[in-house]
Amino acid sequence: MTSNLHTALTGISGILVTPYDNAGEVDPRRQRPIVDKAIAAGVHILVANGNTSEFYALTVEEAETMVGASADHVGGRVPLLAGVGRGVRDACRLARTSRAAGASALMIHQPPDPFSSPRGLIDYVRAIADAAEGLPIVLYLRNDAIGIKAIRELCELPAVVGVKWATPNPLKLAEAIAATDPDIVWVGGLAEVWAPAFYAVGARGFTSGLINVWPERSVAIHSALEAGDYRKANSLIAGMKAFEEIRAEELNGTNVTGVKAALAGIGHDCGATRPPSAWPLTPSQHAALQAFITSNEIRF
Length: 300
Known about the structure:
It is a single chain. The chain is an alpha/beta fold. The chain has one domain: TIM Barrel (Alpha-Beta Barrel). It has helices spanning about 5-10, 30-40, 60-75, 90-100, 120-130, 150-155, 170-180, 190-200, 215-225, 230-240, 240-245, 250, 255-265, 285-295; strands at about 10-15, 45-50, 80-85, 105-110, 135-140, 160-165, 185-190, 205-210. Strands 7-6-5-4-3-2-1-8 form an eight-stranded parallel sheet. Helix 9 (about 215-225) runs antiparallel to helix 10 and helix 11 (about 240-245) packs across helix 13. The radius of gyration is 18 Å and the shape is globular. Belongs to the DapA family. It holds the Pfam family DHDPS. InterPro entries: Aldolase_TIM, DapA-like. This is 4-hydroxy-tetrahydrodipicolinate synthase.
């Protein structure tokens, strides 16, 4: 892993939205201003085809379109992490496409398959790594029930350089960090609100959907955490917590809805979300979001 990628992973991993046009088709052109704004604010690494990108709502062809477009928009200014997943053959196809597009590394979504086994997951990651032909891999771990043994074995695969930890279990995170190679980068995968707790047990950096809307606040939170100033970080988080609370409603079904509604509210419409995501926000959710935007004077 290059030092540039390693350093970027300890920063903010900004998960880019997938814009749609009025007919609901992907419209990559609308993503470019978001990328430019995030990079100008100091976001360290950008992610195409993550969950905030509505990865599971996209066809494989659309995911291929978006990783190519995102690579073009980023233009090598910061590393680009490309999400891959679903069935193993689709994941391998996306790995090859992402590598050809110029992605710096892959982020492998943990399969939502109800019959996924820990040892099967290791085979899954190994197959994708083979398809990626040496591209570094970051694991996106949303279910720590696979156990420390499986997590350790996954981290021992040569291509794996980092883990985005997206389960609200800091103690299990600490155990996983202690059980694996110290060169693995452990990234807080539950955005700004959980970042202090994860930092406290050894994680570095965090994922963010807020960067699509208010990247400056995300960068300020990261700077405070890196300085060890938890009081300042928590104060800054308190100022954006209303946004995350809206996104967490309806079993997290308003997660991307909140981001896209906020983008529209500050003047950069990226279309609706696709089912089964909730759309639009309810009147009370919309009012809370508008109050958040107005009180913080957020503009695009």
